[in-house]
Write a structure and sequence with these properties.
The structure is a homodimer. Chain A is α+β, with helices and mostly antiparallel strands. Chain A has two domains: 148 residues, Jelly Rolls (Sandwich), CATH 2.60.120; 78 residues, Arc Repressor Mutant, subunit A. The first copy, chain A, is elongated, with a radius of gyration of 19 Å. At the A-B interface, α3 and α5 of A face α3 and α5 of B. Chain A binds a DNA duplex through α8.
DNA sequence: CGTGTGATTGACGCCTGTCAACGTCTGTGG
DNA sequence: CCACAGACGTTGACAGGCGTCAATCACACG
């Protein structure tokens, strides 16, 4: 089980904005040779906060949540990782232990690339190095933005922000259904609040006709109004 | 006015952990030649959120606060920059506009280095590139940690955390006086709370004999106990 | 000495976290 | 097929943390 067709980097280049887009064919071949890919199932832990890691992951499909464990074991979700993203590279670069845990929330096909490959590519291919730098820098920008939201917005505004972020990241289908399934608790762990607060605010949003709820499915009916709520006092 | 002795990179290498520590003498010479250094006075704005920048800064002395402007113009301080740190490089790398504002809070001597130098060094010196990557990655780790604090700790715990962070970053003198002067409002803008809350909690800490207050000076009397408060439920 | 900025204190009330109880759904085992 | 357990979702009650407003004080500076 867990046997899948191994994604060929060459093909991934056509499917999404791969971190390997600037490799020459020889370099790409070495990645293809050294990587090991497999299917990870929902609930699998990719790496654990505090552990050292020996490589990073390139995501071909699926969704992974990255979280830190805070007060009384409460998860704080930092970001989501999906197709085309890379995972676990930060701690390699900073030469620290992992500062977060990565857990699969939708079955994912991922390729593991040993850290030696990362560093040898960085050294031999300046465009690849720049690509890594750029991704890190962008992630830093986003993290800083989240920090301000967390510090200054109330729960209602943050929940609206999160819904918008999820809609942008995972998109809506033709029925405007948000293409990611999260428990109420997970939503709370993004927003940084209690599960009950999320539930109450979701029903408020539903009453105000901004969203609709079908079990765990969230239908986004009025993105503009959500945008307005999220930037209320901005 | 504002004329000072221009810091020589060669000397800075001996004074602190310079980002240029891995340059060869030729590269160091080109930085020395291209940079422009001067004294910035308290209150000076180095760059402004939303603007494009054309280079980055290497700090020789002084303190700069980096903040984002949030709800109703409220500053949220992201980090402090001091001797040996670099400033404004993130947006160069990500090729975005500045996502924050940098303002001098203690007279600072800083060198401006054009972005072309940054990129040419990154391309020609892999160790320099790694150094930049590493600094970005570490900053990202810190930002993520702050995010969790902000999401999960209450104001009391956050204020304790901030005092500890300040003590570590700017150190205490022989009388245990914190070596940075901040207004109550600035403290509130780090903690992410109202000025009045900071004032009230500071007096509580003082009553509990954890700190002492002499005007704007903060004397840290019991770092261990502050540590305990900041990680109360962890 | 007036003016302005920052610091402090008190009053007040809303937001939001916590606790408890209950409803819903799914899968499992008898 | 039914009973049950367990996870998740929902709702209500309640209290306390913390933000807001207003008044006053302290201090520096032109």
């Amino acid at each position: 089980m867990n046997k899948i067709e191994m994604p060929q980097c060459e093909l991934c280049l056509h499917h999404f904005n791969s971190v390997f887009k600037n490799l020459n064919s020889e370099q790409l071949e070495s990645v293809n040779f050294e990587k090991s890919c497999r299917l990870y199932k929902k609930g699998d832990i990719i790496y654990h906060e505090g552990n050292r890691t020996s490589g990073f992951y390139c995501i071909s499909s699926g969704i992974i949540k990255v979280f830190k464990t805070g007060i009384e074991g409460r998860e704080q979700i930092i970001r989501f990782v999906k197709k085309g993203d890379i995972l676990g590279y930060r701690s390699l670069i900073s030469k620290e232990a992992a500062c977060s845990t990565a857990k699969v929330i939708e079955d994912a096909v991922m390729c593991f690339i040993p850290s030696e490959i990362l560093f040898s590519l960085v050294k031999s291919n300046i465009d690849f190095a720049m690509e890594i730098m750029q991704r890190t820098a962008k992630e830093l920008g986003e993290s800083n933005k989240l920090l301000v939201d967390m510090a200054q917005k109330n729960v209602r505004e943050r929940l609206a922000s999160v819904l918008i972020m999820l809609a942008e990241t995972f998109e809506l289908d033709d029925n405007k259904i948000l293409q990611i399934n999260l428990t109420r608790e997970e939503l709370a762990n993004i927003v940084g609040t209690a599960t009950e607060s999320v539930i109450r605010l979701l029903s408020e949003f539903k009453q105000d006709d901004l969203i609709d709820l079908k079990g765990r499915k969230i239908i986004i009916k009025n993105l503009d109004e959500l945008e307005e709520i999220s930037t209320m006092y901005l």
